[in-house]
Amino acid sequence: MVHIKKVVIQGFKSYKELLDLEPFSKGSNVIVGRNGSGKSNFFFAIFSRIFALMRGRPCFMALEYTLYTKELQSTNETLRRLDTDRQEESSRAKEEYQNALLVHKALKAKERELKDAEIEMRRLNKEKSVIEEERKELLKQKAKLELELEEAESRAGTDQENQERLAKEAERLRKEIRTTTKKLDDLTPRYMAAVEAERDVNERIIDCERRVNDLYSKQGRSSRFTNKKERDAWIKKEIKLVDRTIEVQKQQIEALQDEINQIGAMREDEAKKGYSQVNKKALDQYVSFTEQYDDLLNKKKESDSGADRITELIQALDRKKDEAIERTFKGVAKHFAQVFSELVPDGKGVLVMQRSKDVQEVGRIAAYTGVAIKVAFTRGGETQHMQHLSGGQKSLVALALIFAIQRCDPAPFYLFDEIDSALDQSHRTAVAEMIKRQAEKAQFITTTFRPELVRSAKKHYGITFKNKISSIHAITEKKALAIIRASAEAEAGPLMPAEEEEEEEEETSKGKEPAASTTTTRDEGEEGEEEETQLGEGEGEGEGEEGAAPMEE
Q1: Alpha carbon distance 167, 155 (integer Å)
Q2: In 208-338, at which residue ranges do the beta strands (DSSP E only) sit?
Q3: Closest by alpha carbon to 17, among 466, 460, 459, 417?
Q4: How many Cα neighbours within 13 Å face the side chain of 386?
Q5: Among 504, 510, 518, 496, CA closest to 540
Q6: Mapping DSSP to helix (H, G, I), strand (E, B) and coil, where does residue 236 land?
Q7: CA 256, CA 242: separation in Å to the nearest integer?
Q8: Which domains occur in the chain, in start order?
Q9: Low-confidence residues of the chain: pLDDT under 50
Q10: Which of 110, 291, 445, 531 has the greatest number of beta carbons closer than 10 A?
Q11: Could you list the residue ranges forming a coiled coil in this record (predicted)?
């Protein structure tokens, strides 16, 4: 069985001095120490080395590929949504531009109509003024003639001699009056027509102004103008902008038309050349081009066939992935129910696969959206989702899932850092017993502040922190329990101040830190084989850290 035999650490975080820890047990190992003593740093050293070695393995690469694929799908979906929004926005902007052009054309038409109406009104006003002057003159003339007639009639009564002459004069005046009256009668319809035309023109002007204001209201800009002068200035400015845009588009259309004409002229020239001189090699060229076409057609068919085969292969791989996921999930779900019933005898736990509603759209693998966990901690109780559980219950469920995965696909060793901190006593005891049973087939290295894991472990280690340096040594179970009790008593005050711990973390994170090395062993007979990996200097944190636990099989 592959297991961690010993760990060598120097210059990693708080482990500044060389640490060469004696062989670990193949079963259960427990590490105790006060807060801030360096238990987590010990695990970081091992984890960093494990992750560094796993990066080149297919399983780790497959996991990274799956995560990157998910992220890529999400990014592509976001890009598609943004592209759709951009196209909709572009269509909306184009539609608004077309509406603006239509409104602009309508405005120009109404302005032309308004200008024509104003010109017609000025002409009618002039004609009206002329007719009015002529009418006034005729009325004056009529009044004058009537006055002369009255004078003539009055003189006729007193002057018998001039009666006949006055009668003739009166007749003449009557004729002139009739003529003037007739002219007035003829002029009156024209005058009334001019008045009616003026009224129509005024109504047309009012209607045009109302429609122009309606158009401005539709554009939402009528409130911007306080008077007609501002409105006319804005209209002229907008007309210039639109005219400039139309002019640019006309130039582009003319340029494209010129190119089309040039291409057409070139084609005509080529056609004329073809008619002027017959190509004697046309038949040979036709045969050659036909062969090239057939060859390209065959290559296209081969490419299509290859693409079909690749598609079939991808579909087959997807089916295998789907089957593997289903098979793995069923195994993990089965073991989860068993493990949870062992940890909580009166409880029940189930795993539920969550799928997308539209499998065809997202694909078979992407159809799996997650796993839901439902548990009940009492007999006959209603199952609850994870989000409804307490912190300790969530920790227990997570441990049950880890143990279920371990039973489905066993790993050679497990590193647990204070997994029982949030559990109550009964659950801590159940977890300790399960680790003890699982330790027969795998190695467990755990840290704890509770006595249950200490009592079930085969080997015990204690971590001390002095002068900002961590050290770890093998201790007895009795000593480990004493450290647990001392830690519980000193829980109100940590071993070292928080400021000092932060200062230590800052100092150890600066510069380069030699990392750790471990020795892992695979049993072969009684002697077995062992190989030690000593790491060079590396960064103390992040991806550059190198911890422990290379495995040789």
Answers
A1: 10
A2: none
A3: 466
A4: 13
A5: 510
A6: helix
A7: 21
A8: 1-54+410-553 (3.40.50.300), 90-224 (1.10.287)
A9: 222, 271, 274-275, 361-362, 494-514, 524-553
A10: 445
A11: 107-183, 239-273
The tens digit of pLDDT for each residue in 493-530 reads: 544 443 344 444 444 444 444 455 555 555 544 334 44
| The two structure tokens encoding residue 154 | 């009055």
CA-based radius of gyration for the chain: 52
pLDDT at residue 414, rounded to an integer = 86
Q: How many whole angstroms separate alpha carbon 376 and alpha carbon 344?
A: 9
Q: What is the CB neighbour count within 10 angstroms for residue 49? A: 25
Buried b or exposed e, range 383-420, using 16+ CB within 10 angstroms: eeeeeebeeebbbbbebbbbbbbbbbeeebbbbbbbbb
Secondary structure of 393-442 in HEC code, one letter for each residue: HHHHHHHHHHHHHHHHCCCCEEEEECCCCCCCHHHHHHHHHHHHHHCCCC
Cβ atoms of 18 and 474 within 8 Å: the answer is no
How many CA atoms within 13 Å lie on the side-chain side of 185? 6
Locate 381 and state its tokens. Answer: 């109780």
Tokens of 93: 């902007």
